Amino acid sequence: MIIALNNKSNLNRKEFKEYYKELLKIKTKSKLILCPTFLNIGLAYSDKVLLGSQNVSRDKDGAFTGEISAEQLKNSGVKYSIVGHSERREYQRESFEDINKKIKRLLDNNIVPILCIGETLEERKEDQVKEVLNAELLSAIKGLDAKEKSKIIVAYEPIWSIGTGKIPTLEEIEEVFNFIKKKFPKNKVLYGGSANEKNIDELKTLKIIDGYLLGGLSLKPKELQEFLNKLEK
Ligand code: 13P
Predict the structure, then answer these.
(1) How many domains would you assign to the chain?
(2) Can 157 be counted among the known catalytic residues?
(3) pTM (2 decimals)?
(4) What is the DSSP string of 164-176?
(5) Closest by alpha carbon to 140, among 169, 173, 102?
(6) Which of the following is catalytic: 87, 94, 136, 157?
């Protein structure tokens, strides 16, 4: 299983150091990918937890003030990068084109993109889920060949589920995963959105899920261990 931990904009330097020590104590058979804030990336030191970033510049090194390039991430030991998280699509107005460019920059630098896709509650109510996901998936892989496409990890994160404690029904998740896997048969697909130690017994019955992208739970090593114990039982 792939377990990606999205710290989002949390943990200052001191807090991260303490947190990281706790994280290294975690016992698991899964592949842990930690995505800290950019400032905390340099504080991670162990091979036990793989390193990811939460974002990347759409451009190469150069005159792009405030941006961090894929080359720089690679040089700092980053092996994975979240791209197109719904929080960035919404608050930073990231476009389909931005996301496509970021994926290309990452692949050029041998960093695995974790592409986030997901619908709003309104879109779900209006039965537009597949349409929305289809547009997000197709725009993301524009110009990529089959081999490049297969390297992407897809993370299905229903926007209405992120940080709300609500998750879709198992049938709803299964339907979406079948849809994604039909289009992306070679890709790993993760579920994200309020996954936690309380609902993992239910979620893990869906064998189609290749792993999880965790937000809130990523910040709580004790509960994360509980989640992993249940998942791997
Ligand atoms: P929560 O697990 O806090 O719902 O966040 C999910 C997420 O957005 C991970 O990228």
Answers:
(1) 1
(2) yes
(3) 0.98
(4) TS----HHHHHHH
(5) 102
(6) 157
